[in-house]
Design a protein that fits this description.
The chain is an alpha/beta fold and 287 residues long. It contains 6 helices and 13 strands. The chain has a single domain, classed as Ribonuclease Z/Hydroxyacylglutathione hydrolase-like (Metallo-beta-lactamase, Chain A, 4-Layer Sandwich), CATH 3.60.15. The chain has a 7-stranded mixed beta sheet with strand order 6-5-4-3-2-1-13, with helices on one face. Strand 1 and strand 2 form a beta hairpin. Helix 5 runs parallel beside helix 6. The protein is globular, with a radius of gyration of 18 Å. Bound molecules: zinc ion. Zinc ion (ZN) binds next to loops. Zinc ion binds next to loops.
Length: 287
């Protein structure tokens, strides 16, 4: 089992040590595509998977989900956070065993998710105090000081419902002059960069586990594609995710690191529970 860099009390102490008037954007990687975001005292939680529900569900099958990195926090332990996203229905992104205890501990949360999955999410989450807010591609909502805009995600396909609404989304997130992109699960597709050029992202959080049919799961970008996307969108920084969670569906970040090096794309590799802090960049334009 890979050790988290920070977990439990140490991670909580780190989260609580950031002052409410700190103007920086802080992101903690919680494993897979899960990130806790904090800026100016406000928090947002992205795609948290903080249980062993998939390991238990697939234990006696031919597709065991063996956890690789230790969990860094139990959902009940999270500090005050009332706004959460789920990029799509897959359990490593919308996990009842994470969201239900989280919502109960918080006294209620708001969960932003793609329109077409609202009904199934409601059934999965039961009567937990969770307000569901549907979002579509190109639609924005402003909640608790965070502005979220839906970006289509191609988790093998750009699946839509009969009204043309996307089942898989990424989120472009803006607050206090920061802009960052949490892609959810997506492969690269030709139009993706056009969603992400203006404003340029301070950081992109991208999967790198690739698309290998033998895994029998929907695919994602590989490390090279993630690096190229970040470079083509002039991202200030790119952080890989969606690896080191399950042995059957992981990838070394080496290819991503090499590609970023060839492209001179700034990047950062995080370990479980590790914090990334970003200063607000200067908006001055040099001529
Ligand atoms: Zn996933």
């Amino acid at each position: 089992m890979i050790e988290a860099l920070q977990k439990d009390d140490a991670l909580l102490a780190d989260i609580h040590s950031t002052a409410a008037d700190d103007p920086r954007l802080h992101l903690w990687w919680l494993g897979q595509s899960g990130f806790l975001c904090q800026q100016g005292g406000a928090r947002l939680l992205l795609d948290p998977y903080l249980s062993d529900s998939l390991t238990e569900k697939y234990a006696a099958t031919d597709k065991p989900h063996v956890r690789m990195t230790e969990r860094c926090l139990a959902p009940e332990q999270l500090p005050s956070v009332r706004l959460v996203t789920a990029s799509h229905l897959h359990t490593d992104h919308l996990d009842a065993a994470t969201l239900v205890p989280l919502a109960r501990a918080q006294g209620g949360i708001t969960l932003v998710l793609p329109h077409p999955i609202l009904e199934e999410a409601r059934a999965r989450l039961g009567d937990a105090p969770i307000e569901l807010v549907g979002l579509g591609a190109g639609e924005s909502c402003e909640l608790q000081g965070w502005r979220l805009t839906g970006v289509p995600a191609m988790h093998d396909d750009l699946k839509t419902d009969e009204q043309g609404r996307h089942h898989y989304l990424g989120f472009l997130i803006q607050r206090a002059g920061f802009c960052f992109y949490h892609s959810g699960d997506t492969r690269w597709y030709p139009d993706l960069a056009n969603w992400l050029l203006d404003p340029a992202c301070d950081v992109m959080l991208l999967p790198i586990n690739g698309h290998k049919p033998e895994r029998r799961v929907a695919g994602n970008m590989d490390g090279t594609e993630a690096a190229v996307l970040a470079r083509s969108c002039h991202a200030r920084l790119v952080v890989p995710c969606h690896y080191d969670m399950f042995t059957f569906n992981t990838e070394s970040p080496d290819e991503f690191i090499t590609a970023c090096g060839h492209l001179a794309q700034p990047h950062r590799i995080l370990r479980g529970g590790e914090k990334l802090s970003l200063e607000r960049h200067s908006t001055a334009v040099s001529v």
